Amino acid sequence: EKGGYDHFMLKEIYEQPRAILDTYRGRLLADQGIIKMSGIDQNLEKFMNANRIIIVACGTSWHAGLVAEYIFEDLARIPVEVEYASEFRYRNPVITENDVLIAISQSGETADTLAAIKLAKEKGAFVFGVCNVVGSSIARETDAGAYTHAGPEIGVASTKAFTTQITVLTLIALKLAHEKGTFSTSKYHEYLAELESIPAKVEKTLESNELVEHISDIYKDSNNCLYLGRGYNFPVALEGALKLKEISYIHAEGYPAAEMKHGPIALIDEQMPVVVIATKKGHYEKVVSNIQEIKSRSGRIIAIVTEGDKTVKELADHVIEVPETSECLTPLLTTIPLQLLSYHIAVMRDCNVDQPRNLAKSVTVE
Ligand code: F6R
């Protein structure tokens, strides 16, 4: 049932090229320049007239929501707020009939996310679900939705659910951007083609597995780890840190790289591995100067870079390459080595990868 892999988590990491393809299959018609999603098509007015989009979720799904915030604002120019479902529902939020709420949940059973949906519905907002489990409570409670079609995710640590959630949200953002005419038709076609090439690029990224295993062996006994990224890759840093925490029990924190100098830089010494996402587009020079700051304080740097990068290679202790793509799609690639890093470290520490202590696959209690 694990298809020859030692753990479900590894199997699910390797399933991502296929899962992403399944997510956009029948929806992304790149040749025709069409994105077909019935849940959006039937409710287009709601999205086009929305004052703002509120995204609610928990854990890894919340990180996918943060990536979506960058995509929606950057491409579709719609204001977005991303909220932890548990905070949103208890703080008497301002919700109007012109708000669209998007709830993201792999299991579709997360209690706080479900409660946030009910609250938003009571206040008259239109509620859209992005779920993986078909027929789940959240899928049933929402006004409309789009499934991720990632297939069953069994490992407690979410992997393919995350990348397929980002894929669905990217499709929605591109569709709305095109409807609104926020960028040229040629740019739109470029994005569609680029999205279509992502499964092959994820496949290529997975080739770094042996290198990541080697790096994992060097850092497996660390007590702490810092993850840094900017822009689209800031949420990826948060997600990388969560993966390491939950399955290897190493304390890890994710930060926007520029925030480092406002506190976390005090933690840096030769014992501290720092994982930096430093892909070519998106504030590259700024990230390079963050890397220099870490290096001058003897921090150990594991950098995720764009194929062929030379500058970071000279500064970092280790570099892991990902293929080049549009900036907004880089999270789909940069996430992969971070998943592998947490996986290998957890295996080397003899942790129960698929069923980490104290965690459940779906959190149906509040
Ligand atoms: C992390 C993880 C959790 C879930 C969170 C939300 O790897 O699995 O953080 O992402 O419990 O779960 P869903 O997406 O099912 O609502």
UniProtKB/TrEMBL annotation:
It catalyses: D-fructose 6-phosphate + L-glutamine = D-glucosamine 6-phosphate + L-glutamate. Its main location: cytoplasm. GO terms for molecular function: carbohydrate derivative binding; glutamine-fructose-6-phosphate transaminase (isomerizing) activity. The keyword Cytoplasm applies. It is found in: Cytoplasm. The keyword Transport does not apply. Residues 43-182, 215-356 form the SIS domain. One of its GO terms (biological process) is fructose 6-phosphate metabolic process. One of its GO terms (cellular component) is cytosol. Keywords: Aminotransferase, Cytoplasm, Glutamine amidotransferase, Repeat, Transferase. The active site is at residue 361. Its EC number is 2.6.1.16. Catalyzes the first step in hexosamine metabolism, converting fructose-6P into glucosamine-6P using glutamine as a nitrogen source. Homodimer. This is Glutamine--fructose-6-phosphate aminotransferase [isomerizing]. It comes from Flagellimonas nanhaiensis. The chain holds residues 250 to 615 of 615 of the full protein.
